[in-house]
Amino acid sequence: MECRAGCAACCIVISISSPLPGLPQGKPAGMPCPHLTAERRCALFGQPQRPAVCGELPASLEMCGTTDEHAFAYLEELERLTSPHSSH
């Protein structure tokens, strides 16, 4: 499955703990990645600076669903469940 054009839920919802260009401490959950283009595509795609976690999170029907809203809700729940600050 390929990413749905313009969704970018995974580039917004999830936190990234590894450093990335412009964010040496990583990216907090809910903050749009500064490397999203105006078309909501990753400007680091295929580049060595792209965080490994981004390449390890492939699009799937379970995660992405058929709507952007589904993707955002799924990833928000995943982030909540995996956050070191959550009280699962």
Summed up:
This protein is mainly α.
Tell me the fraction of residues in β-strands, as a range. under 5%
Rounded to the nearest angstrom, the distance between the terminal CA atoms is 30 Å
The biggest sheet amounts to: none
Which segments are poorly predicted (pLDDT under 50) over 5 or more consecutive residues?
none
Total of DSSP H or I helical runs spanning 4+ residues: 4
Order of helix and strand elements from N to C terminus:
HHHH
The total domain count is 1
Mean pLDDT: 92
**Structural class given helices, strands, pairing?**
mainly alpha
- Please tell me how large the radius of gyration is: 13 Å
Salient structural properties:
88 residues
Verbal overview:
- With 88 residues, the protein is mainly α.
- The protein has one domain (9-82).
- The chain has helices spanning 9-12, 52-55, 61-64, 68-82.
- The mean pLDDT is 92.
